[in-house]
User: Which sequence fits this backbone?
């Protein structure tokens, strides 16, 4: 049986609950041949991965998931096979991290106005090595007894339109594509059927994305076939993965199930080599 690849996985360095080494062990157990850690706006997992990867017979390709905005719509862009030490990337990720902390402080301030007391230190402890995100604030609300679940926290306070919502740092698709190009990476549109209209999809293709995520838990077989046709028509790389976080009921059963052929890695590497900057 030919080994396959999961190119969409999150760890404790963003909003996942597993360490990079735990992910590697899971990948071996699932008989995967390759993985990419695609943490949100972070490549910190690779500092750990490179120290331990020689213990596992798993190929690792660098990855990240950028949170972008286009026409006031949040869109996620995956990047692969890039230089994690690129100076402009490092600067951008530091900017994002600081912006997340500012955002957290603003959410805390809004919560205080409705008599909900949280502080940045306790949220930072929950986040651990990861940048602070809304799920970490939701966990703090649970710990303090203000809500009983993440869903309740978002429905009452943290989602768009709710009293304590605070928008993310505005990073456009154009900026993301320019940054990925500067890092010699490959840009892939994440789970397009989940958030993106057909019109937006074709606009993004015209903007220069290199691939689309065809295989994803949010996309059924019919959608997969449709996206594969689009990828073939526009010479895009068809990628995929489990979008594993570890915190959702279905995560463990999805790991090893949502994969792509090993040949997709070679397509990514070949596109890097053929690109003219």
Assistant:
């Amino acid at each position: 049986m030919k080994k396959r690849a999961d190119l969409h996985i999150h760890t404790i360095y963003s909003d996942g609950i597993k360490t990079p080494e735990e992910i590697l062990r899971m990948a071996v157990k699932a008989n995967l041949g390759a993985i990419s850690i695609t943490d949100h706006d972070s490549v910190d997992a690779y500092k750990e991965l490179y120290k331990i990867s020689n213990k596992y017979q798993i190929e690792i390709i660098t990855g990240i998931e950028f949170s972008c905005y286009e026409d006031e719509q949040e869109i996620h862009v995956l990047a692969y096979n890039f230089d994690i030490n690129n100076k402009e990337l490092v600067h951008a990720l530091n900017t994002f991290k600081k912006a997340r902390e500012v955002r957290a402080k603003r959410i805390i301030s809004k919560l205080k106005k409705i008599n909900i007391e949280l502080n940045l230190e306790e949220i930072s402890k929950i986040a651990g090595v990861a940048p602070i995100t809304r799920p970490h604030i939701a966990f703090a609300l649970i710990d303090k007894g203000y809500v009983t679940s993440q869903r309740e926290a978002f429905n009452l306070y943290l989602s768009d339109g709710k009293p304590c919502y605070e928008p993310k740092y505005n990073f456009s698709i154009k900026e993301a594509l320019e940054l990925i190009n500067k890092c010699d990476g490959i840009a892939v549109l994440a789970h397009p059927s989940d958030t993106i209209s057909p019109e937006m999809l074709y606009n993004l293709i015209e903007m220069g994305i290199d691939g689309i995520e065809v295989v994803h838990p949010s996309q059924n077989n019919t959608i997969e076939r449709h996206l594969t046709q689009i990828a073939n028509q526009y010479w895009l790389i068809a990628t995929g993965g489990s979008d594993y976080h570890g915190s959702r009921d279905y995560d463990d059963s999805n790991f090893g199930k949502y994969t792509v052929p090993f040949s997709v890695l070679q397509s990514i590497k070949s596109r890097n080599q053929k690109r003219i900057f």
Q: What stands out?
A: The mean pLDDT is 91.
